[in-house]
Fold this protein.
Amino acid sequence: MIRLENISIAYSSKTIIDRASVVFPQGSVTVLIGRNGAGKSTLLRSLTAVEAPKSGTIFIGGKDIFSLNYEQRAKLLSFVGTQRIRIANMLCRDVVATGRAPYTNWVGKLHSSDIEIVNNALEAVGMNSFAMRSIDTLSDGESQRIMIARALAQQTPTIMLDEPTAFLDIPTRFEICKLLSNLAHNQGKTIIFSTHDIDAALPIADYIAVLDNCKLSLHPASEAKEVISTLFSL
């Protein structure tokens, strides 16, 4: 569970969120929407402790995220950004294995239990047959699945994603959204992702978080039609 208490967030001198208090329930999918420039990526950076809010507190699993060190944070949440890893000759298996970094020793040695977790993560996203493929040979959709597998290998209760369906074809967009839904509802993960791809995201959402005019609000997905109509009305 993620709880925001009286959070205010700014980007440069611009206020993005002004005194918001929201709870994102465990084992659910929340889709974060808003107009271009509303600050969705900035909010995700605060939720993942990349940038501190101006004021307020962010709790993950009952712990103030900014009171934790890097390793402790990395065991609570994982993040999938918009960048694709295109390192020549780096195997997909090794990309996913980097998700074990919070649990390995200083040289990053993987034990048999870590290898099993990596294999299970690849299988969960349907990419076990790609383990020995080089990451730079994959399509955007395949690469995105590998990055989600990396987040799974990190074994965190919370996964956040920034525009996970961007640059994907239509069938792959729906496949990725369905995968995220399965992770939340079958593995109890808290999934939060920003998107402009409302058609693919809303059918699998439990909640929608709306960022508009410095306000952050959370609504059941059943209210999505009304909320979106209000948000994007002319």
